[in-house]
Description:
The chain is mainly alpha-helical and 253 residues long. It has one domain. It is 76% helix and 0% strand. The two termini are 18 Å apart. One of its GO terms (molecular function) is ABC-type transporter activity. Keywords: Antibiotic resistance, Cell membrane, Membrane, Transmembrane, Transmembrane helix, Transport. Belongs to the ABC-2 integral membrane protein family. This is Transport permease protein. Residues 25-251 form the ABC transmembrane type-2 domain.
Amino acid sequence: MNKHFVGDTAVLLGRSLRHIARSPDTIITTAIMPIAFMLLFVYVFGGAIEAGSDSYVNYLLPGILIITIASGISYTAFRLFLDLKGGIFERFQSMPIARSAVLWAHVLTSLVANLISIVVVIGVALVMGFRTGAGVSGWLAVAGILVLFTLALTWIAVIPGLSAKTLDGASAFSYPLIFLPFVSSAFVPTQSMPGPVRAFAEHQPVTSIVNAIRDLFTQQPVGADIWIALAWCAGILVLAYLFANVTYRRRIS
């Protein structure tokens, strides 16, 4: 690893964050859809859904946070694609900077932008009646899971960002990820689902992540869900990181 990796990443991260500061609509757009889903499900469908909770927004919020991240990481692929087509990568290659710093700058930019969007969504949820008795340790655990999940999905986003042929193709990969929470315990308990759907819902990563966050917010014993969630996040992160770097090396070679 280049000895200047940290400094190079910091400089490139500053560049990416300045772009976001000049175009805050990306963060606003990322937050609008999850907030719209939250309003729709709480105020339109909430009365008809039996989720076993006094407040449906309390039950709903963990899944909404996952959707926020899934919609936000599409901008990583979008920005990477534009940098490639704009010739920025070729310019960086001619400079004495760490090659991996370019990707890490985009990944960390995604992390910062998504955390801001998550804060906005939680703020709206509080206005809608979300309440939690979680202490500092509970909030830190939730933050840790969300950070790990964001990094995992962002490294997935790097792959189409580097390999897509069109701008639409670079962003389209996120649609299945946004849909995944709908076939999980995010909106209704999995017990209410038909057999095959329930089997899928109970064995996909979103359910364990949502359940772990929900238990942390309600101060319930997290049991095995938190370890399954962390295992899913770590496994996806490692595989996505490896494939992204292979794609990157092929793209710039």
